[in-house]
Amino acid sequence: MIRIRFISADGSHETMVQANAGDRLLDLAQANGQPLEGTCEGAMACSTCHVHLVGGDTEKLPPPCDEEEDMLDFAAGANRQSRLACQIKLTADITSLDVKMPRGVMDNSR
User: Fold this and answer.
1) Bridge-based pairing state of the strands 2-7 and 14-19
2) Which of 4, 52, 75, 109 is the most interior residue, by most CB within 10 Å?
3) Please, are residues 110 and 44 in contact by the beta-carbon 8 Å criterion?
4) Least confident of 66-70, 94-98, 101-105
5) Would you give the end-to-end CA distance of the chain in angstroms?
6) Beta strand pairing status for 2-7 and 96-100?
7) Beta bridge partners of 50
């Protein structure tokens, strides 16, 4: 099992989720009430599933592809920890990820 911790933009709320290898981060976020649209369904035509990865096993994820980096250029508040949740598929060598919502997303986790 993989532990995912979703953190609200202001840090005041956390949601812990158990995941499996093969799960997609966007699907987990949406299934657990996180404020990510992902309206392009993984086709990288938007940046509505932009998150910040902190702590955990972030170094075990493959780096973003060129297309993902291009889409992150359109994401408000993107930084070097930014990724698109639609592009992150969890693998068995990851034990935990901490995912922080960027400022400006609606926090509907309460």
Assistant:
1) antiparallel
2) 4
3) no
4) 101-105
5) 25
6) parallel
7) 84
Closest CA to 3 of 106, 108, 97: 97
Nearby residues of 15 by Cβ (< 8 Å), 6 or more positions away:
5, 6, 32, 33, 34, 109
Distance CA 66, CA 76 (A): 18
27-82: per-residue pLDDT in tens? 999 999 998 888 787 777 788 899 999 988 899 998 999 999 999 998 888 988 99
Q: Is it the case that residue 9 has pLDDT exceeding 80?
A: yes
Closest CA to 9 of 45, 43, 35, 48: 35
> How far is Cα 21 from Cα 11, in angstroms, rounded to an integer?
26
Q: What is the pTM of this model?
A: 0.87
